[in-house]
Structure formats: structure tokens, C-alpha cells
């Protein structure tokens, strides 16, 4: 690649400033006949971060007194709304002369090519052409404009006309017709001309939607002990363990080291459960007969609703539960009660409300509140995002012999997910939809992804293809400032880095309490229970995976569904997988962290060796002054830091950070490294390839081992006396952990 082409490519990967016309602009007075345009005088607007898009709305409510077919004596009515070449139809009702539809049609003003709106009422016929019943005609110049926040336009009854419009016919239809924008309440559920080619179940997959993640809890099952176990072979004492299951999650305790009928474990099993608690806790006590054979000695099924919720680590009362002897079914239910002694298990079970259930990586976390609502603080700000449009999207599929893309955008912050409507067959879709979130912590990240809709034909076999993703860290935004940028949609593929298009956004972060926001910088990022009683790394990885699955399943049940592949991409399901490219990137991030100290040591070395005599003399003069006047040491240090801060302030970034290809080592990644990154788990590669990669990993691990050893020799701080320790991180540690680490800029 030539230097010019490389420079052009780097420019393509950069963030671009845009100047869209944001805010609402209405004709004078908001009624027909007003000339010119004026800007809204309202201080705030529901849709002030998007470009205004005008639509002609037609609300079809109902009809009455429709004539029946003289042959069949019945009528199967439906309404057809026609504007130029665009037609929209309601559903038809069988044998119903007084139908009710309550359906809205939205025609984009940019695509209106007719001065007349026609509303037809027809009778559907199984064979032949549908019968004409009547119509209503509207002159487009007479359509009123609805100006928010006015109340919705009241529908009216209209008499039907014959084909020529010369006389009235039997029947009436209730309609409301008005000109509005995407801010109208009818917009989300309306039939759009943008999707006029979609039919069947695909209509439900193109609508915009707001989703809420299910409320997740950690369920702690403390398995203490069991009494009076009865193995199948009475001559052998059992070596028992407990297997617990909640939904698809299965965990086991360790096998009791002693063979006894009264084993003890005192082991915690942690699950993820979602409200409403539909699943049950299944517990079985099993005997480890051989390494390959386990036999069930007893079981119990407990509904999750019986367990209490706690907000901290206070003690929870334990309970004894009688186990059903495995093998007795419904038909032998009476026989169970004839047993004189029953096997019992001792449990302590509770829901943990003091933790935040992690379903996303802590590097890109968008919410850190504990599960229990009683522990929530007041919001410190409001985040508003206008999803304007996308430009230059790549072809994602072929339809009717030509390449096309049916794009929609998904945004996730906190528990709230939003999905824009799907724009059909466009490489430059315009959404212009605005959404709002409450912000409880500025050190969080909003994630936006663009996808290609593969479910418009009603087929459910294909996955929605990912086009690209954008992350924005709120702490990098100035408050009360509108950022309008075009973000490159960069995707790393086995063939290398590829730009899939650009996403144009308008973002504003409004701070409600500056003092509270500053105070948060001294607090841990996660709730204190994560530090006082932390989970292991393996537990966190497993729990995050389970939480992600629960969220994906719940959101997949919505209409339209937010599909599993979309949720996994937004939550970075594969962020924990090994990548040589990411490892290199993180290594050089560590190197850059210490680059300042290295540069300072080099400078001091040059001063000591008189590389620059003038600098060395000035340093000696400064040291001599500080020795004579030691009270100037601290003021000099603070003055120097202040001047450095002022100097660096001039070069502060003017826009939020975005996906950095250089930082991510995406531009220079070797083909084999990318092939390894996209490999399946477990691997599907040949044995010699796996051996080569294993040897490479060993060499990298050897270097890391050396660095860690050097750091360990300097780790006296971590060996300090317990009196100077705290389970919660210190205030300076909290502050530096909350500073933007540029981790959200990595691919």
C-alpha cells in the first residue's frame, strides 16, 4: 500500500465532525397556509437532537353501516390507503359490517408525489377481484399540521363516495389525517412507506422498540451438611456430593473427603436468577460410586420465591429440608410417607441484593447499581442520544439479484435497550430517533451497534449480521454540550480491518449534580459487596456468561425480538477469549504508561552527563535555590504541575475517543494472529498449527513471567501491615480507576 493510500485510509478511520440541522422547525402557527419556517422557542424539546422528518399520518379507526354483498349476504371489509404509488392495507375482518382497525399509516413527505390522498374501503373476495365499497378523498393542501405538544387530532366520520366522487354511497369510515414528525406518538407503531415491500410477520421485525433488561439477582446456595444418607448398597458408606440446578445452570459441591452418611460441605454455589422467579432450585445428593458412576440418593425441588433477599452480608437463617428418596414417583407417593427416617439436607439460601449482576465487561460497563432498589442513589445526570443516520454502509446480502442492506441500530445503556426501525434497502439510512437515559455514574459507557435485518421475509433461520459498533464513555463528554460526529463503523475480520460505513450521532450529557458527580470519583466503581466479599475470577466469568444468556433469552421473547446474536455482540460475549493482537496492544499500553518516567530518567541522565550544559547549569542553580530556601520546594512542585496542566489543556481532545485502530494493533496484525483470534473454541485447526501457536504462547508467557517477577520484587506496598489495609480500594485508587483508560477505544 502506498503512503498516500495509507494516509487516506487513516483519515477514513477517524472521527468526523458533522453539522446537521437539529431541532424542531414548524410552519408559522403550526397550521396550513403558514409561509416560511421558524425555530422552536421552547428551551427544551423532546426531539432536539435529531433532524426533523415530516410524515403524513392517516389513522384508520373503524367503519360502520357497510353494505353486504348481495350474493353472499356478508362482507369481509378492509381499508386501502393510497398516496401516489404507495399503498397500505389494514387487515380484513370476516363477516363484519362494523369493523374496528385502529391502525396508523405514515407516508414520508420526501416520497410524496401526489396531491391527493385516497382511502378506499373494499370487500375481500376469495376468488376474483375485491369488490369496491367506497372511498374518501383528501386534498393534500387541506391537511392540517399537528404541532406538539398539542393533543392528538380527533378522528371524524366520513361518508363514502362512489368511484367518480359524484355521489355518496352507503357506509361511513372514521379517519384522522394530519401532517406531523417522528416525534408524534403514532410514529413507533405506524405502517411506514420505508417498509412498503415488507409483508407477513416481517412487518413486526421492522418497528422501533424500547426494551428493559430483566432484573437479575445472584442466588447464593450455601450447602452445609446432610444427615442420614441411604446409599443403594447398604454395605458401603457413601462418598457424597450435592448437585444443584437453576434453569440451565448446574453446579456441584466438592466430594466429601470422608465416606459417611452425615457428610459436611459448607460450600457456596452461586447462580443468576431473573425476576419474576419462574425457575426452581433442583437439588440432588449423589454418591460417588466410581470415577465414572454417580448414583442419586435423594432430591428436592424448591421454588425460588420462598428464599429471602438481603442487602448486605448479614447472617441468613439456615433450614433443614427433607429429601425425597430417588426412585419413588407419583404412583408410589404414599410409600414415601411410610419411611420412618428421612434423609435431610441443611441449607442457607438467599438472594444477594448488595451486588451488581455483571452481564457486560467491567471495561465497558454501563451500569454499576446494586440489584436491590433500596440501595440506589439519585441520578446525577441525563444522557440524550440522537441516532441520526448511517452513511456508506456495505452490501450485506443479495436480494433479487442486487446487493442491499436493511439496517437498524441498537443502543444499550444501563438496563434500557433501544432499537430503531429498520430502513429497507438503503446504504444511507436515516433514522432520526432520539432516546434518553438516566445516568447514575459518569464513568460508564454507552454502546451502539448497527445490524442488518435478515428476518423481513418471515424466515427465522438466518442471523442478523453485525455491521459495526461504537462506544462512548460519558466521562469524556463535557456537560450540556451537543456532540455531533460521524463515527466509523470498524469491524475486524479474518481478512483484516474493514470499514463498514459511518454512524452519525448527536449526544448530550446533562449534569444534574456536579458535587455528587465529583464525589463519585472517590467511590469504588462497583458496590462495596464486590470488595468486602468478592467472587473468584472463575465465578465472575461463569456468572457473567449465565447473566448474558438470561438477558438474551428474555429480550428474544419481545416483539420485535432483540435476537441472541445482537445481544451477544453488544455485550462483548467473546471479550475474554485469547487474542495475540489484544495482548500486544495491552502490553504497549502498559509501556506507554511508564513512558513518562522513562523519559524523565533519560533527561536526568543527560543532565548528569552534561549533554546540554545550559540545561545542567540551570538545574544546578534551581537545586541551589531550593537548598537555601527549602520552603520553596512544595510551591515549586505545584507551580510546575500547574504549568504542565495548562500546557496540556491546550491539546485536550475536542471530541470523544472512538475505536482506535493504532491502539488496538488492528492495522498491523499478522494474518495468522487474526486467524487464531477468529478460531472456534475448542480449536478446529490442524495439529501442527495448534503446536506452533502453543509454542508462541509459551514464549509470550515467559516474558510476562519475567515482568511479573520484577514487579513482585518491588511490591513492598502490598506487604504492608494489616492495620494499614482495607478491603475496599483507597480513594486515590478509585480516582485513577475511574479515569478514561481508552479500553473502550480498542477493537
Automatic annotation (TrEMBL):
Family named by the database record:
Belongs to the MCTP family.
Taxonomic superkingdom:
Eukaryota
Topology in the membrane? Multi-pass membrane protein
| Any Pfam family matching the protein | PRT_C
Localisation = Membrane
Which residue intervals define the domain C2 in the entry? 37-158, 198-321, 359-487
Q: What is this protein called?
A: FT-interacting protein 1, multiple C2 domain and transmembrane region protein 1
Positions of transmembrane segments: 505-522, 587-605, 617-649
PANTHER family per record:
FT-INTERACTING PROTEIN 1, PHOSPHORIBOSYLANTHRANILATE TRANSFERASE ISOFORM 1
Q: What is the lineage of its organism?
A: Eukaryota, Viridiplantae, Streptophyta, Embryophyta, Tracheophyta
Which Gene Ontology molecular-function terms are recorded? metal ion binding
Q: Where is the composition biased (Basic and acidic residues)?
A: 9-19
Any GO CC annotation of this UniProt entry? membrane
* PROSITE patterns linked: C2
Q: What is its main location?
A: membrane
Give the span(s) annotated as Disordered: 1-27
Question: Matching InterPro entries, A to Z?
Answer: C2_dom, C2_domain_sf, C2B_MCTP_PRT_plant, C2C_MCTP_PRT_plant, C2D_MCTP_PRT_plant, MCTP_C, QUIRKY-like
Q: Which UniProt keywords apply?
A: Calcium, Membrane, Metal-binding, Repeat, Transmembrane, Transmembrane helix
Does the record bear Protease in its keywords?
A: no
